[in-house]
Specification:
five-stranded parallel beta sheet; 2 domains; Rossmann fold; alpha/beta; 45% helix
Length: 181
């Protein structure tokens, strides 16, 4: 993609979103674009419960907690905000897919999302945001796949053989940063 002016990235704090944040940072730096990490939140119990019994104090607390989660995600991804990059963090109320698509509407936008876990059962429960963004976005969308190490760690029966498997730093360095079976 050429001419990106804004790189919008979903930043929930999940391992997939941290990988997407790092990738979005590289893209924003390469294109000289602004980086906009976005964390979306909904009230516990959903929007319907909050509309039935609105409480401005609770809404403020949830909004502040969302900001704390966003700063924790940025800290986990980078340690500190890159000084040589324009970073405009944003916390938005709403469903993540819809909010990200609504923010990434301008010509020159690039939307970066974590692709979620792979596998039949994993696709049923995760990856909904990336699928929504790929289906509805008006700008290019980059779905960053999970790391090889995340695939190897796995969940459920698929990852069972790897649960007690020791992965040493020597092995990671020897294999160029990607550990495969």
């Amino acid at each position: 993609m050429s001419g990106a002016r804004r790189v919008i990235v979903g930043a929930s704090g999940s391992p997939g979103s941290l990988r997407a944040l790092r990738h979005a940072e590289d893209l924003a730096r390469h294109h000289g674009a602004a980086l906009i990490p976005v964390l979306c939140w909904t009230p516990p119990g959903g929007d319907l419960a909050a509309r039935r019994q609105p409480c401005p104090t609770l809404s403020r607390i949830w909004h502040e907690a969302a900001w704390q989660r966003l700063w924790a995600a940025l800290d986990a991804a980078w340690g500190e905000i890159p000084a040589d990059l324009t970073v405009q963090p944003s916390v938005q109320h709403g469903q993540p897919g819809q909010v990200l698509v609504d923010i990434a509407y301008q010509p020159g936008d690039l939307l970066v999302v974590g692709a979620g876990r792979r596998g039949i059962l994993a696709r049923l429960w995760s990856g909904r945001v990336s699928r929504y963004c790929l289906a509805h976005a008006k700008c290019p969308v980059l779905a960053v796949p999970p790391a090889v190490l995340a695939h190897e760690a796995g969940h459920g029966l698929h990852g069972w053989p790897f649960r007690r498997r020791a992965i040493s730093m020597d092995r990671i360095l020897r294999e160029g940063g990607s550990v495969t079976a």
